[in-house]
C-alpha cells in the first residue's frame, strides 16, 4: 500500500474551454475522480461546477483549496454531518 502523504502534483483540467492546472495531493485527485464518476460527469465538468461555486463565495479561495473543501464537505462527511446534526465520532476519534 502506498502512503497517502505525498506532495501536490500538477493536474491539467479544462474549465469552459480554457486549460488550467491545479496542484493537488494524489489522495484528493483520486477522491475528485471518484466523485465525478459517482455523479456520471467528467472531472472537468465537476471542477467547473466547483469553480463556479467558489467564485460566487464572499471570499473565494484558490481553485485547489476550493476543491479540497468541496471534497470534505460533499464527499467525506457522513449524511448526518451534512444535515448539521451531531454525529457519533469514529472509534479513532474517541
From TrEMBL:
Species, as recorded: Qipengyuania polymorpha
Protein name per its UniProtKB record: Ribbon-helix-helix domain-containing protein
Cited InterPro entries: RHH_dom, RHH_sf
Family annotation (Pfam families): RHH_4 (PF13467)
Stretches assigned to the Ribbon-helix-helix domain: 9-74
